Amino acid sequence: MTERIICLVCLVIGYGFGLLQIAHIYSKSKNVNIREKGSGNAGTTNMFRVMGIKAGIITLLGDCAKLVAAVLVTKLIFLTWLHYDIDPTALALYTGFGCVLGHDFPFYFHFKGGKGMATTAALLCCFGNWQMIVVGVAIFFGIVIATQYVSLGSMTTVCAEFILFVILTQGGWFRLNRAWMPDSYILFFLIAALLVFQHRKNIKRLKEHRETKFYFRTAQQIQEAEEKHRETQVTAKLEHVQQKAEKKVDRLQNRAEKKVAAAQSKAELVQNKADYKNRKVQLKAEIKQEKNRNWAGKIAEHAPKSLKQNDSENE
């Protein structure tokens, strides 16, 4: 019972050390909020991408140091001073798991922190097993160099290390008290599963071939790239505004042409109506004259003969 309480205390101590967000502290000292830049992740990889090699290395060393410090503190308290019979590897796993939880889920940042690769790597180094260190370094850097995907290298490495840990402990090449094997396997599995879970967005981007590749760049190179990116954005925005203005001008011109055409059609219609009215008046006048001539002719035909004779004599 006492040992389980100690394990819980180790988790709490590890969580407390994990709350030290090195990326956030360093970026704030440079008047940069790393949580609003790049991927928004307060971790080593994002620091390399956003602030350069120096900032990335400082963050990496800081995240590793806090886990090492947490493990040293718990070992010093419970193994050196209090002399409890707890396997050192299991104690380191409990402390390390707590530290990873604190790094990934800091309560004062609404449980949004890093992804825990640097702290997990430091935990593997705390085991002191050279086989695991060599294999981990080879797998991680081999994948990153070949693909330039840090996320893929991180997930593959931690999963491979878990399998190697089980093989080495079961084969007797890694010293681990059998009574603490179940705890150690469960904790190591949870650490690996948590790291994969934290990379769930990266997994989606990898499937869609949209994952960002990793390149070592200095702060000056990053600044130049950002300026170039801003210029590109400004140019693209200007082109967009210009295209929008051209479309608006085309729409206005089309409307004006339609209005002119409608006005012309209306004028032609008015002119046609006027011509029609004039023609109608002319036709009525012609019809009236024709009627008058016809009536005059009929009257002449039906006039008395005496009037016709008088007319002829007068002539």
General description of the model:
By secondary structure, this protein is an all-alpha fold. The chain folds into 2 domains: 2-217, no CATH class; 228-306. It contains 12 helices and no strands. It has helices at residues 2-18, 22-29, 44-51, 53-81, 88-104, 117-126, 130-147, 150-171, 181-198, 200-207, 219-301, 305-314. α2 crosses α4 (53-81). The longest helix is centred in the C-terminal third of the chain and has 83 residues, at 219-301. The chain starts with a helix and ends with a helix. The mean pLDDT is 87.
Write the layout of secondary structure elements.
Elements: H1 2-18, H2 22-29, H3 44-51, H4 53-81, H5 88-104, H6 117-126, H7 130-147, H8 150-171, H9 181-198, H10 200-207, H11 219-301, H12 305-314
Gist?
By secondary structure, the protein is mainly α. It has helices spanning 2-18, 22-29, 44-51, 53-81, 88-104, 117-126, 130-147, 150-171, 181-198, 200-207, 219-301, 305-314.
- Give the helix tally: 12
Question: Which structural class do you get from the secondary structure elements?
Answer: mainly alpha
Tally of separate domains: 2
Total strands: the figure is: 0
Please tell me the overall pLDDT: 87
Shape: rod-shaped
Strand fraction: under 5%
Helicity range of the residues? Answer: over 70%
CA(first)-CA(last) distance: 159 Å
Low-confidence stretches: none
